[in-house]
Structures are given as structure tokens and as C-alpha cells.
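Feature request, filed as a ticket because there's no other form

It would be nice if the structure record came with a short human-readable summary line next to the C-alpha cells. Right now we just get the raw output. Example of a typical job, pasted below so the devs can see what we mean:
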Amino acid sequence: MSLSKGFEIEMYTGTPQGEIVGLSDKIVEALDGFVREPDSRNVEYITKPLHSYERLLCALVRPRQQLRHYLKQLGDYTLIPGSTLSLGRSDRFFRSDPTNPYHDYIEQTYGTKVVTASVHINVGISDPELLMRACRVIRTEAPLFLALSASSPFLDGKATGYHSTRWGLFPHTPAHVPLFESHAHHIQWVEQQLAAGTMQNVRHLWASVRPNGDRRPYDLNRLELRICDLVTDPISLLAITALLEARLLQIIANPEIDPLTQSIFSPEELLTITANNEAAAAVASLDAPLQHWQDGRTIIARDWIQQMYQEVWAIAKQQGFSCFLSPLHKILREGNEAQQWLQLHSVGVDSGRVISQAIIAIQERELELEDKLCSPSMV
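Raw output as currently delivered:
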């Protein structure tokens, strides 16, 4: 049994030198499949839920190629990697839709802390109680996925001390989100937040993981992992997704995997451990010392990921997607995007040069993948 998978990809637009320029109002008017974010400097595209990784690869690459073609018509513009305003202008908001009252609230409440680029990974699980258990497990393990994806070590041209500045600064809202014990618990909690105003609408739940669906919180059909920084290399993103899917298949097959029953800690203690782990992964990503949710032992993020990989490899192989899981080895060996950028920065390459080199690298990678793998039958 494979699960359906889809992505929400937020990306910045700007110049080949790395200056981020707001173009989303024009993009959304001109191209189908793209939606605006509150700030005009990033734009989002959403892939349809698919089971096949080969088709997912094309669903990731094709809209970018379409967007790149359109940006060339507007001028010398391109797509910019990273999850923060790496080279500057974090001091002000550039509204994409000045008439939208929800955007008013976001700008006034959070400022440019929310002007980030990221990837949200949605995986289909239709049984609501199974979905809640999956969310409980993946929420406690979400720091591992942040560690693999970190790509925001710079802000306003400076190294910040974070590997994921985005997650380090992002306003996690509401401030206290429980480990939902059941679907009924989730419904009751969301209704309470809406009544109290701590959530402005059902989308205003910005935790690392949330249950999602067409009529939240009542009709739910997927787990949404929201913690990941933008992963510009499609092969790396599919490897992270394959790890998530294989782990979810393991959880589905074994009802005993549940932090509410398998941990020595209370639910509130688990929330504290998870928050601390998220903060540690935002700072040091794969090198972060984390506390395991089961028994509290300290384990380096890279080692925990390696253990999980070994546990779920057979599941991925049985389901026919282990070849998409195996590129995780390269990330663990060579580091995520933030670590690679910081390595260059440590030997004297300034942040602007790091970003401009990355812009060229992702464009070349997309062309290579489109030529090799995106045959018409896969569209």
C-alpha cells in the first residue's frame, strides 16, 4: 500500500544576484496553479496528490520551468533558494493583496517573520483516528525532517547562528497545541481556538505537523508536515518524503507506535521535549543533540535519522520506492543546504556569492532532471 503525496512549495523570485523581488501578483494573474502569499516576494505552487514518485518528480519540476519561462518575459528574474530573506529587506512587508483582511492581521501581528519559503508535505491518511496517531508520532519526530531540510542560515546578508533561521524565528501559532488524543479532541480544541480568537480561521494553525482536509477540522484526509525549509533539489525532497511515507506505513502497520502509550513522559512533558528538539534542530540541524520521545535518551539528529532509515528501508523496498529513499545517504554525508552554504561561508565566500552560486546550481539541476526523467507519459 503506497500513500498519496503532494507538496505546497513556496519560493522566492528575484535577480540572479540574489536580490528578492516581489512578483507574485503578476505571476498569479498570468499562470494557472500558482497562488499568492501575504508578501509578494514569494509565490506558491501546489502539486496534485500522486502515488508515484516518478510522477511527483515531474510535478515538482514542470511548474518551476513554466515559472522560469514567465519570469524571463518580465526581465532578468529567476528563482532564489533558501527559506529566509537571505540578503536583505527583512525590515518591511511588501503586500501582495492590500485589500485582504487576513493579510492585514498577519502583517500587523507577525511582520516579516512569516515572509519565508518552505515546503509542506501532505500525505494521504483518510481514517481520522489513524491520522491523529500518525500526527502524534510525526510531531515528536518532526525535528528530524527539519534537520534534513534546513536551508536558511542567512538573514539580511549575515549568518544568524541558525541552520534554519526560518523555524527559529517563525511564530508557532497558537502558542500551545496539544498532542490530539482523538479526532473529537481535535475538533473541540479547534472550535475553542476559533471562539477565543487565538486562531483567525481553520488555516491559522502553524505547528510543525497538522491534520488537514477539505473541511477542517471535521473532514480530514491527510497529514501535513509543515516544518521543512525549502528543499530546492527535487531528488533530495523526494528522499525526505520517502522517509516520511515509509515511517507512516510503519506506524499504520503497528498500532503500538504512539507517544501517548510508548513514552515514559506525560503529554505535556512530550510537548516540552518536542519544542526543545525543534529549537535545537533549527540551530544545528543534523548535528543537533535531541532527546528521544520514548525514553529521553540524548541522540544526535543524524544518528536518529540513520536508525529510522534502517528500520523503514525494507518497507520502502517492498513498496517499490527504496531508490527514492537512498539519496538520504548523500544528505547525511555531505550535509543539508544550510550546512553546505555555511561551509563555503567559513572559508571566506560571502553570503551574496553563496546564494548566486546556488541559484545557478538549482537551475542546472532542474534542466538535468527534466531532460532525463520527465517523459510525456509521466505528466
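Something like this underneath would help us a lot:
The first strand starts at residue 5 and ends at 14.
The CA atoms of residues 164 and 282 lie 5 Å apart.
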